Amino acid sequence: MEFFPTAFADRMKATALELAVLAGHLVLYPSGLVGERRAAPSVPAGDGTGSGPGAAARPVVLLHGFVDNRSVFVMLRRALSRHGRDSVESLNYSPLTCDLRAAAELLGRRVAELLDRTGHTEVDLVGHSLGGLIARYYVQRLGGDAKVRTLVMLGTPHSGTTFVPLAVADAHPLVRQMRPGSEVLRELAGPASGCRTRFVSFWSDLDQVMVPVETARLDHPDLIVHNVRVSGIGHLALPVHPTVANGILRALDDGVPATDERDGSSGAASVA
C-alpha cells in the first residue's frame, strides 16, 4: 500500500533535483561555449597505456549531450582531478552538426591529437546522452576500440528514445538519429566482433528523457558491457551527482560494478 506514495515522493525529489541542476547549468552554460585551452604536451611514464609502473593515468575525453556544451561536466571534472586524472578534456561539437557520424569523426581526430600530444596509447571516454552515442559510434564503427580503453555512457539512448518534447525538434537530424529504428541505431546494433573497448552504461529508473528508461541499457552480444542502474535521479543529474561520479571513477579504474541481484541482470548495480 505504501508503494505508490513512496514512488511519487521519489519522483518529486528527482524532479526537484532536476530543476536545481538545470538552474545551475543555465548559469554555467555561457562559460562552456568557448573551447577550452588544451594542456601542454607531456610524456607518460610506464608503457604509455596508463597501466605500466609509474604511469600517469590515461587521458579522459568528455562529450556533452544534444544542444549542450562542456559546462555540464564541471563537477565531474573536479572529481576526476581529485582522483588523479590530470589530463581531462572536453569536446564541444557544434549544435549545427547534422550527422552523428560527423561528430564521431571529429572525436576520432581529437583522440588522435590527444594521444600524440600526451604520449599515451589509450584514452577513456565519458559521454552524456547523445555524447555517449557519438562515442559509441566512434568506437564501434570507426576503429576507436584500438584507442579507447573504457567508454562510460550516462543516460544514452542505445535503442532510441520516444521522449515527447523532442518531437518539437524532430526536424533536427540528430534528434531523428536518436529515435528508435534510425539508420545509425541499426548500424550500432549490427555485428561488432572483436571490439576491444569496455562499455559501462549508467541508466536511471527516473530518467524522463530516456523513454523507456531501459533504452539507456546497452545490450549487444559482441560488446563487453556493464549496465549500472541508478535509482532516484533524473537525466540532467547524471553528470553531476556525486554517487554517479564515484561509479564512473571505479569504472575508469577498471573496477567491475557489482551485480544487483534485485535486478537479476548481469553487470547491473544500483548506485544512488
Topology (SSEs and partners):
Layout: H1 3-28, E1 60-63, H2 74-82, E2 88-91, H3 100-118, E3 123-128, H4 130-141, E4 148-154, H5 173-177, H6 183-189, E5 198-204, E6 224-230, H7 242-252
Parallel strand pairs: 1-2, 1-3, 3-4, 4-5, 5-6
Helix pairs in contact: 2-7, 3-4
Whole-angstrom Rg: 18 Å
Helix/strand-derived category reads alpha/beta
Q: Give the SSE order as H and E letters.
A: HEHEHEHEHHEEH
| Unreliable segments of 5+ consecutive residues | 258-268
Number of strands: 6
In angstroms, what separates the terminal alpha carbons? 24 Å
Q: Which features would summarize this protein structure in a list?
A:
alpha/beta, 272 residues, globular
Word description of this protein:
The chain is of the alpha/beta class and 272 residues long. 33% of the residues lie in helices and 13% in strands. It has helices at residues 3-28, 74-82, 100-118, 130-141, 173-177, 183-189, 242-252; strands spanning 60-63, 88-91, 123-128, 148-154, 198-204, 224-230. α2 packs across α7 (242-252) and α3 packs across α4.
TL;DR of this structure?
Helix content is 33%, strand content 13%.
